[in-house]
Write a structure and sequence with these properties.
single chain, nine-stranded mixed sheet, 31% strand
Amino acid sequence: MTTSTPEKKAIRVVVWGENRHEQINEVVRGIYPDGMHNTIAGGIRRLLGDEVTVTTRVLDDPEHGMTEELLAETDVLLWWGHTAHEEVTDEVVDRIQKHVLEGMGIIVLHSGHHSRIFRRLMGTTCSLRWRNDNDGEFVWTVAPRHPIAEGVPQPLIIPGQEMYGEFFDIPEPDELIFISSFSGGEVFRSGITYNRGYGKVFYFSPGDEIFPVYHQPDVQRVIANGVKWAHSERARESYLVTPMYIPGEFDRPVLPSPDGLVDYYTRELIAPREDAE
């Protein structure tokens, strides 16, 4: 007798790009003729193959591409923004935050540190020092056994890049994976993770638009590893509703309803109201 194992579902990935520099800057358009978002998406597809399905969205799509229907079907969202952070609406920021709290993973890249969604998730300004003069960046792995660091050289060398330096105004990371150093003596926490609700957050700083950073195989490896790490097998569930508990039933959350108490997960009635007819 043979038993079959359930087919593993592909990780559903959406790469979001602001896609403004590519439209107005010839240098950026020359490096990323199909847009940074498509280069990032291509690297994920190349490295993870059938493990993923990858689609892209951009700022100028309706609802910035971040519809409720899309986010409900997204396992991991990647976010790159720079000049138009404030154009992202409150409604979309609220919507993305809700899905992260309910279990969607999110990877924020480079200047996305100042995106509205990252600032919302961090609760701080997320400001930093910077200098854009084609500096070399050495990305040092400080957590070599972390799955995001798997297969990443020590150090990962980026020949030309914008300098990001401390102080980086973020909460204490749950995990510090990479620290970068630059020729001016600056250092930066360039690879960090957080848990927010049921969702995982990974921030990775390399990737300024005027340098071909996202074409580098080692950078693509970090991002692909981040996708696998940020994906959760846990079924999406509400995080914003606070359940109550019946005395003695410590592991059975319930919710009040007009008809009585209902099971938190199934919404089945388990204790009708005493005054119900």
